[in-house]
Specification:
By secondary structure, the protein is an alpha+beta fold. The chain has a five-stranded antiparallel β-sheet with strand order 4-5-10-6-7. It has a four-stranded antiparallel β-sheet with strand order 11-12-13-14. A three-stranded parallel β-sheet has the order 1-3-2, with helices on one face. The chain is globular and about 65 Å long. The relative contact order is 0.12.
Amino acid sequence: MIRYDYLKPSSLEEAIGLLKQYGGQAKLIAGGTDVMVGIRQKKYAPQVLISLRGIEGLSYIREEDGGLRIGALTTHRELEKSPLVRERLGALADAVDNLGSVQIRNVATIGGNICNAAPSADTAPPLLVLGASVRIKGSEGERVLPLEEFFLGPGETALKDDEILVEFIIPSPPPNSASAYWKHTRRQAMDLPIIGVAMMLAVEKTEAPALKEAFGREAPLEELLGALDESELVCQEVRLALGVAAPTPMRASKAEEFLRGKRVTQEALLQFGEIASSEATPRDTVRGAAWYRREMIKVLPKRLALKCLERIMARE
């Protein structure tokens, strides 16, 4: 039988004090959907579980300085139901729509999903393309860290033993932009992704009536791509993030640099995907082979670019 003490502090300061007291012997728990599985699988063997559920003020979604702030204890169900998330953070909305079951989303938190630091974490690629930072509190004070610097390896983060992730800071998106996330799985059911791809695309303000009309009647993919080639849309800014493509969720920086300032065409998106695939370092797992993951990275950015453009034009 696995035995551990269960502590439920009522304040953030008390929780930090307990972490300082117990050090590496303690494990934080919020929704518990990852931690309890890890304990049963003997991935973790804590002597103490410190629950954050009794701490008020860590679950919220609010506007600030043109961007959004999300508390670390906000559940995926709260994100799924939030009009602000759906309106402004399309990639994150896509991710939580397909994350586990409703029962899991009711208790699983965004902070837990990120702190678990799994390469397959569904919310990580969306947060990366949205330019998120994390606010961290510990016994030595508070610090803010770009999310790219938070992941150090599989299951490993930049958190010190006495630190807690308390908030996600998401800046205001660029003008004429939208984001999207695609979770590629073996089946249309609860499953971890074979590959996860998120994209944020901002374009210069250019009319593209043929493409907008094609989106409006849900034209086939080939027709949409043809209308895209006829448009004069130019990439102002782009971010592409990959999950299950490296030891940590990653940005495809070389691919991003290639597409900035170029017309958004089939050929440009094809090269964009090729470059992103070359940056990835996937491995073979029971869910998918490395070569297959590379092939999907080549083609999925094209579909995500169309989804971003569709969302941009839907606002006009």
